[in-house]
Amino acid sequence: MPEAHRAYVDLQYYVAGGEIIDWYPLEALVPTTDHDEEGDFRLFACPAHLPLPLLMRAGTFALFFPQDAHVPMVADGVHSSYCMIVFKIRCGLFEQQVAALAK
Prior knowledge:
Blueprint lengths: L2 E2 L3 E18 L16 E2 L8 E6 L3 E4 L3 E7 L7 E9 H12 L1
Antiparallel strand pairs: 1-3, 2-4, 2-5, 2-6, 2-7
C-alpha cells in the first residue's frame, strides 16, 4: 500500500543491496486510513495506474515530500536484501531555507 507523510520528508539512502520503491503523486490516490499523527503516515489504496518505479542501489538516495506517496520494499529481482538509512527531516526546515533564499 502506498504511504505518505505530512510532517517529515523522508530521505532514504541505500548502503548495500537494492530494491524498487514505487512512487505515486499523492493527489491521484484515495486514502484508506486517517493520518497517524504519532507515526506521521497515511495509507492509500493501490491505484489502477502504474507507479513510477525507482530502482534503488547502494549509493543512491530518494527524497519523499508530503506530496509524494511511495511503496517501499518492492523486490527488484536481483537482490534478496538491502540496507538503507532513513533520515526524517521536518518539513519546516525546507520552508525556512526557501524563505532565506528568497531574501
